[in-house]
Amino acid sequence: MNNIIILYSFYLLITICVTVWVARTLFRNGKLFLIDIFHGDKDLAQAVNNLLLVGFYLINIGYAVYTLRVISEVNTARLVIEVLSLKIAAIILILGCMHFLNMFIFFRLRKRALIEKRNRELGFE
C-alpha cells in the first residue's frame, strides 16, 4: 500500500477520534455553564449546546479534511510518522485554542448573566 494512503488514513482516523472526544467532553461539561448563563432555561441551554457541538464538528473536521493534502513525497516510514505528527499537532493546537475560546466566551456570558441577575434582585431592571 502506498505510504500516502497510510498517512491519510491514520491522519483522518486520529483527527476524527480526537475531535469527537473533545467535542463530547465540551458538550457534556458545557451544559452546566449554559444553564447558568440562560438563567436555568434548560431547553435553551440544550439547544445552544447542540448548535455549538455541530459548529465544533464542522470547523474541526472541515479543517482536517481541508489540510489533508501532502505535497512532498512520503516514501519512508519515518516521513509518514513525521508528517502525521505535524498534522495531528496542528489539529490538537486548534482544538485547544477553540476550547479556550469557548471557555472565554462562557465565562464572559456567565459574568454578564450574574450582573443581570444581581441588578434584577436589587430592582435596577
What does it look like?
It is a single chain. The relative contact order is 0.15. The protein has one domain (3-121). The termini are far apart. It has helices at residues 3-37, 42-66, 77-121. It is elongated. Helix 1 (3-37) runs antiparallel to helix 2, helix 1 (3-37) runs parallel beside helix 3 and helix 2 runs antiparallel to helix 3 (77-121). It has 125 residues and is mainly alpha-helical.
Walk me through the topology.
Blueprint: H1 3-37, H2 42-66, H3 77-121
Helix pairs in contact: 1-2, 1-3, 2-3
Distance between the termini: 68 Å
Order of helices and strands: HHH
- Structural Rg: 20 Å
Q: What percent of residues adopt helix (DSSP H or I)?
A: over 70%
**Structural class by helix and strand composition:** mainly alpha
How many strands, which pairing sense, and closed or not: the largest β-sheet?
none
Can you describe this structure in just a few lines?
It contains 3 helices and no strands. It has helices at 3-37, 42-66, 77-121.
